[in-house]
């Protein structure tokens, strides 16, 4: 036996094939990770947004117009207008008198305008008796996504980008609307047109549901569900649940036998559990199709607005079944067979789930999800706006045509020109508010767009990869929040916020791609060409036969095959040969005995190396060619070396993580394991050594780190901009860092850290900083704040103006106007002290008086200056004057503060270990090592045991080794520089292998008794600085209504003594303190109360009793007085009954 | 020879800890011995040997003092030896990409070659005079070169003054400063003219006036005269004769130490410590990591043998910094002595106003830190 086995393999050793024996170790594909930069080069970091937008602009917009191409008139039946073509131009300036037409995104940012391009249509319409064709008719403007194929930045090299003041590392994928950068976040949804079977274990209900969605049609959800052991169909347009047999009968399957075959097939268990349903139909007296239609028709919701002859009930049912119920299954020429089979399949899935509860679907499975991107949302918005546009156009045309006589021949083009900017303003409004309320599609969504966070490069990038779920945040279900195994490689396991949105907001992994729609029609034809039998020709017995597999295309059942493996194999071969889109996926579901082909948009997929016969198809030669730049990533796809797998197909594949793990059945090989993390989690060195929540914390904190934002950061005028003065690239970097360009726009500094206790001011994660390091620029940052104002022209002809500094009675310029120059603006570079005026604006006193008609020059002006409010002085960095789209002058003043770290500023390493500065120590007091190196930061070792951030320790080790050897080390996830190698370098340079140095105390001068873990760690300065937070108040402003101190730092508010503090005081019995805190120091108020009637009076007079006899004065909180008055306003009489204490 | 080592002088270096880091409460005094202070004995034990001297740095041994003394000198060198640095920057024009504050910060950190002895301390209330302030100006405008080659990538080929360096600082003599012979011989300038301050592009210009004043490192690190001033203790390696290193592992054993520390006899493979090279031992404790060498070697450091390393980055030549620190320390001691004596005198007088006492002490310090030191007091340590 054993010998035989040896013989079988013997021949492999003998004839060398192409100089290599088959048993030679497979040469590993070195540097196959290079596919990743190649991928990113082709696709960019935010390819999903850009691809989606490009698809909308190039394809979808044309489909939408085609679906709504005709405008006719109710008045003149001969009139028609047809949209022949539509295209989106390139972004242009809207200023009328502009010399240069094209506009750059940066100009839009600065000028608070919208970066948009005109939409041109070609129309054909009747003018009198002629048909006229007019190309390039502008119907509105579409905001353009940056770096999309309509954007001026598309395909530009670094130098051209620099001329356009644009950062080459900026990923694009967002819009500039009214000067703000807006992102349409990716929305996660349950997939459309697919059957999902779920159970409710409490009620014992099994239901199969399917959300139908057709292009331009309505979305509706159909359920096939159990109720008292019987199966019903439920739909919004039908009042009550319809027994499933009646539905099938209405769909034209009249024989009970056939119904049984279509649902239960030949399975006895299914048959017996289905029989009840047949009985019920019989009990209800429904036997024929007509009876079934009558039954359903009586329950269909009729919402007919059109007046016309009332249709018979059965026709109503027919109509509903054809167009509303399961609308995505086509009904051509009243052929209900496909729909009947679909309903049959849904029923069968319910029966299967009833029999075996394992056969239910998982809603949280990523393969059952679709991601909705900017393109789809804009398409919906456009369709809505375009339809409204056409309705308005039709109304306008009707209005003209209604007039009996016209001076000139009617030209619809002119009417079209006066349609206003409905489309333009619709887009701008939706994107700038984030409200997608499209009544037509029953869509009402708020918070679709967000302002792109430019706190740091990473925060902007992280925002572009974010996915928000539609799931409600308040519900206490853990499923949607949990980490799904199928997220592997598609969604980042680390990058999710903490708290209420935990697990609902996700981020894409590095290599994920989101598909766009691929035309279904050719795929279906191909399926038949590959030998699939049409489903309409099959009976239930065949469909559920022992060897047949049902073939689905995008959820609709198209046919049967008896050789699923061969069919799928052939299909994949054709895809790898590039015969159709690489994003079409196919897989076999063995449980349901189906083959699913998906070509719809919104699927998450990622590329993988194809393995055939136990060898990856990508070889070292290919990689070499890639290195030389001879081939690109697309060539790998074209040659069939690499292919995209979506989640479902991935589940049907055997993927090896490393080459050494390839076995004969392996079908694919991962390109690189670290791509399973996203861009933000990719910054963490050695994340695979950290406790997992620490990586999640870092993902949140990396977005708050101050650093470089973009190459154009100094040209930007953002509301708030944080910059680090001396950012450094990390000593321990990762491949991801290089790929996303974090090493070119870093947010942190390599601090020499000593892990030791020092002074006691380092408890609870506080850090000790070296004063000399701060003197030399460590952690120094700048804060830029924008202050904008408009110099407005008012409707009554008056306008704002700028004035130079006024003189006081002595002819001196007041100190607060010191920096104002002759033009009324502060000079650039001037120091702005608190209270200084930097824009001396004046407003006409009658600006809002529309009756005014005098000379604008004669009006009186009042001062409305802009004064500097921060308690710390700043410097004027920039002053910009420009004109907005509606021709108002806009002034933006950028004021800068340079800050040096101080006590209480927040710092963090890249391992979720944050801490505030607890003490700043002079250099001479700091411990030093044999080389005389002082630490920049001292970190308390208690931060380690409970956090278990081993990655941080390895980072220190690798960083130290890197410093000693003069190289940057890698801490890439699941790889990176090895600890042994790092220790070796340390030993070779005469250091302890563990990175622990012998330190000498700077205070006593004696050696420390312990060895100290000492080396560089990349530290981030976070945006939370004491300067922005510190607040105290003794006296200050009060709220007008309650006369209590105001709330919040920005209003110089008081510090609240809350109810819990109040409880403590009550418990302690400190009544006088309570009284003092809650009334005397807050809102004490003297009232006069009448002891007769108990009501409040004034000046010792009771207006109710008309007497001053029994008035008493007492002190109460003003809020109490207010309460009494409010009660009185509501017809409740509060009476004060006074008593001597 | 190694047996001669007084084990009490050693700080023990163990695998996971350091032992005996402190001397006794009275350093050099041990119970049951007469260690009373004796100038002759002290003089005999005290040694300062310069082991290396270059333009920028000095290495020397300080032997025979307690850590507190050595550390005091180290601290003074870092924090209290004065230098002159740019403190006030008056920006007339700055169209470079760098913000004024950042530029000013960079200018402050430029080391100047001016001997601080020539200047007085300037307190914030003092007005600037030629005795306390040194003025520089910086006027650079970047221009495009007329005959630049067509396809250049190098900034220096394309532009004139594309980078502003420390060498662009121009000294503006004030008052009597012109006549100072020191300044005629060596005009005030940055010690290193090649420090890049900012990079410019055609059309950009910087124009500013810079005022340098005298200060000390504890106020701001820019006034520190040293890049580093630190010491380490002389290492000691003792081999245990009762546990010899196996000959076949001798080379591996030698590798556990810095090169040359352990000598391996080429024939017998016997190991011995090279006392001359011992000072180069980095104390990596590598020998403790290998179980086969357990107990073979004992590591330690001499508590009173300090190997100083001072890198000068300012006006001082490296060999001058240490004596200056001694002088400053002596001044401080003098002040303290004076105050103590005053206290003593006061207590003789009986009750005296406590506040005036404190004032006198403070004044004493002020006088000391600004007064010119006598040149004779460096001698003490050269014995």
Automatic annotation (TrEMBL), chain A:
Reaction(s) catalysed (UniProt annotation): RNA(n) + a ribonucleoside 5'-triphosphate = RNA(n+1) + diphosphate
Ranges of residues in domain RNA polymerase Rpb2: 192-372, 451-514, 551-612, 633-662, 1053-1138
Residue span(s) of domain RNA polymerase beta subunit protrusion: 44-417
Keyword Zinc annotated: yes
Any GO BP: termination of RNA polymerase III transcription
Residues covered by the DNA-directed RNA polymerase subunit 2 hybrid-binding domain: 680-1051
Localization (cell): Nucleus
Keyword annotations: DNA-directed RNA polymerase, Metal-binding, Nucleotidyltransferase, Nucleus, Transcription, Transferase, Zinc, Zinc-finger
Keyword Transcription: yes
Assigned EC number: 2.7.7.6
Molecular function terms, GO-annotated: DNA binding; DNA-directed RNA polymerase activity; ribonucleoside binding; zinc ion binding
Gene3D superfamilies registered for this protein in UniProt: 2.40.50.150, 3.90.1070.20, 3.90.1100.10, DNA-directed RNA polymerase, subunit 2, domain 6, RNA polymerase alpha subunit dimerisation domain, RNA polymerase Rpb2, domain 2
Gene Ontology, cellular component aspect: DNA-directed RNA polymerase complex; nucleus
Family: Belongs to the RNA polymerase beta chain family.
Oligomer status and interactors: Component of the RNA polymerase III (Pol III) complex consisting of 17 subunits.
Function: DNA-dependent RNA polymerase catalyzes the transcription of DNA into RNA using the four ribonucleoside triphosphates as substrates. Second largest core component of RNA polymerase III which synthesizes small RNAs, such as 5S rRNA and tRNAs. Proposed to contribute to the polymerase catalytic activity and forms the polymerase active center together with the largest subunit. Pol III is composed of mobile elements and RPC2 is part of the core element with the central large cleft and probably a clamp element that moves to open and close the cleft.
The protein's name: DNA-directed RNA polymerase subunit beta
Originating organism: Rickenella mellea
Lineage: Eukaryota, Fungi, Dikarya, Basidiomycota, Agaricomycotina
UniProtKB/TrEMBL annotation, chain B:
UniProt xrefs under InterPro entries: DNA-dir_RNA_pol_insert (IPR011262), DNA-dir_RNA_pol_RpoA/D/Rpb3 (IPR011263), RBP11-like (IPR036603), RNAP_Rpo3/Rpb3/RPAC1 (IPR022842), RNAPI/III_AC40 (IPR033901), RNApol_insert_sf (IPR036643), Rpo3/RPB3_RNA_Pol_subunit (IPR050518)
UniProt domain DNA-directed RNA polymerase RpoA/D/Rpb3-type: residue ranges: 57-339
Main location, first listed in the record: nucleus
Subcellular location field: Nucleus
Domain of life where this protein originates: Eukaryota
CDD domains, per database record: RNAP_I_II_AC40
One Pfam match: RNA_pol_A_bac
Database matches in SMART domains: RPOLD
Keyword terms: DNA-directed RNA polymerase, Nucleus, Transcription
Keyword RNA-binding: no
Keyword Transcription: yes
GO molecular function, one term: DNA-directed RNA polymerase activity
Biological process (GO), any one: DNA-templated transcription
One cellular component term from this protein's GO annotations in UniProt: RNA polymerase I complex
PANTHER family listed in its UniProt record: DNA-DIRECTED RNA POLYMERASE, DNA-DIRECTED RNA POLYMERASES I AND III SUBUNIT RPAC1
HAMAP family noted in UniProt: RNApol_arch_Rpo3 (MF_00320)
Family, per entry: Belongs to the archaeal Rpo3/eukaryotic RPB3 RNA polymerase subunit family.
Protein name: DNA-directed RNA polymerases I and III subunit RPAC1
Source organism phylogeny: Eukaryota, Fungi, Dikarya, Basidiomycota, Agaricomycotina
